[in-house]
Amino acid sequence: MMYLNTAVAREVSAELRRQQMKPKVLTFWLGVSDRKASALCRGETVWSVADLEAAAEGLGVDLAEMVTRCAARLRTGTEQLG
User: Fold this and answer.
1) Angle CA 66–13–29, to nearest 5
2) Cβ-based neighbours of 71, under 8 Å, separated by 6 or more
């Protein structure tokens, strides 16, 4: 089962790749260390709503769109198990 935090991490990481950015940009948008930015992208640290809002804004993606993409990842991950 895919968890919400994993879905968020994967979607943010995917959007960073689409825009050819590195996780390091999260250090500026979220005000976190390089280590925490990398941990967030790997899904090892819990994403807060504020973190997701800041990341979406930095990426130029509407928050509602980002949440919809995360939900789609959850749905797809669940269906792959079944």
Assistant:
1) 75
2) 7
Residue 76's pLDDT band (cuts 50, 70, 90): confident
Q: How much is the pTM? A: 0.86
Query: What length does the chain have?
Result: 82
Q: What is the DSSP secondary structure assignment for residue 48, as one 8-state letter?
A: P
Sign of the CA dihedral running 65, 68, 70, 76 = negative
10 is written with which tokens?
Answer: 């994967």
Amino acid at 56: A
Tokens 């935090």 belong to 5
Distance CA 48, CA 69 (A): 16
SS3 49: helix
